[in-house]
């Protein structure tokens, strides 16, 4: 009887996980992971395309303001998945905590409880992360709210979708095609630990 009960619980958990996996998201506001950037060319600022520092294998392109959203960006591959959307972030026009709570409740209802909490203890940064799977692999979904004074973090509410494994594949592809040339570093001008701190 105990074995049957354990088997039933395992089957229930598997079914629930499978259900969430089948419902794993890949689109928000008409932007879809895995699509070519040409499919959304009209909403992109193509002149903004840049590779982040030390990440030549991807390009980041700004998104024009959409109704209900205050811009954002897409990240596309530049090697194995050239011009394919690997990640994107959208910033909501509504910056309130109430709006964040509403979006969170909708996401939890659809995808279950998030896997990770990445906020700060002061309550000014709230970050929930879901790790979901579908037939093509892992999808990362991140919902964020920030109301602090740090200029390096965008204030308000934002949402991100990405395929982390595709980004890793992009890096591996780039590294194989562009092996590092071993060069000797420029010697330190100051001896000892003083070289590593401001002066």
Question: Can you lay out the helices and strands and say which pair or pack?
Answer:
Elements: H1 2-22, E1 27-28, E2 31-32, E3 44-50, E4 58-63, E5 69-77, E6 85-92, H2 97-111, E7 116-117, E8 125-134, E9 137-146, E10 156-162, H3 164-177
Antiparallel strand pairs: 1-2, 3-4, 4-5, 5-6, 6-10, 7-8, 8-9, 9-10
Query: Helical element count?
Result: 3
* Average residue-wise pLDDT: 88
Task: Please estimate the helix content.
Answer: 25-40%
What order do the helices and strands follow? HEEEEEEHEEEEH
| Sequence stretches where pLDDT stays below 50 over 5 or more residues | 5-21
**What structural class do you assign from the helix and strand content?**
alpha+beta
- Beta content comes to 25-35%
Tell me the number of strands: 10
Query: Spatial order of the strands in the main sheet?
Result: 3-4-5-6-10-9-8-7
Distance between the ends: 72 Å
General shape: globular
The largest sheet, given as strand count, sense and whether it forms a barrel, is: 8 strands, antiparallel
Radius of gyration: 21 Å
């Amino acid at each position: 009887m105990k074995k049957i009960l354990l088997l039933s619980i395992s089957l229930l958990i598997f079914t629930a996980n499978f259900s969430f996996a089948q419902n794993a998201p890949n689109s928000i506001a008409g932007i879809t992971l895995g699509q070519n950037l040409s499919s959304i060319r009209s909403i992109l600022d193509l002149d903004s395309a840049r590779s982040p520092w030390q990440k030549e294998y991807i390009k980041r392109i700004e998104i024009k303001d959409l109704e209900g959203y205050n811009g954002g960006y897409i990240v596309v591959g530049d090697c194995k998945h050239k011009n394919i959307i690997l990640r994107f972030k959208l910033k909501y026009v509504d910056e309130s905590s109430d709006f964040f709570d509403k979006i969170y409740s909708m996401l939890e209802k659809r995808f279950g409880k998030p896997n990770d909490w990445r906020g700060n203890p002061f309550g000014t940064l709230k970050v929930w992360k879901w790790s979901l799977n579908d037939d093509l692999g892992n999808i990362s979904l991140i919902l964020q709210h920030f109301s602090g004074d740090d200029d390096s973090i965008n204030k308000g509410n934002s949402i991100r979708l990405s395929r982390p494994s595709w980004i890793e594949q992009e890096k591996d592809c780039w590294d194989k095609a562009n092996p590092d040339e071993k060069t000797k570093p420029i010697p330190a001008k100051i001896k000892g630990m003083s070289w590593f701190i401001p002066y």
